[in-house]
Design brief:
8 strands; endopeptidase fold (from Nostoc punctiforme); globular; six-stranded antiparallel β-sheet; alpha+beta; two-stranded antiparallel sheet; 2 helices
Length: about 180
Amino acid sequence: MRIITIILCISVSISAKSQLNSISNASFIIMRQISQKSNSTQVIDSALNFGKKLIGHRYKYGGSSLSGFDCSGFISYIFRKYGCTFPHSSRAYSQIGETISKDSIKTLRKGDILLFKGLNSKSTRIGHVSIVVEANESQILMLHSCCDKGVAIENYTTSEYYPKRLIAIRRITAL
């Protein structure tokens, strides 16, 4: 009887310890996810603030430095400062993060990536990329480097050019 009681106590003790470890591991995973989300938000905020300081820099095809930026080179440049590697190809941005439906344009958030047709409006290929700096009910402000203005912030909502060219939206989920 005594042996059974000891085995039962050890079994309960091991089971309780195992459950405690599971709870502890689950808490750690949740805290890590919260930390990653918070870190992603901080990196996006920092990169966008840095990018705003570059407004007025000239456009340069293939550029990804202070001597001039193309659209994807600009976004990759502002995130590189914070240890993030982004592609230097507007088409490659269609593979990062998660897809946001174009019908959900009103749910955009700071840091979302907007992918557009390039200069050829008949094309179905991605040729331009920008990043959302502010989105609310009345406006969607996007930061990008474009041929005619260089690095600039434009209001997507009031633009006659960009809404017709929107191909896809991507949300950066982790950095």
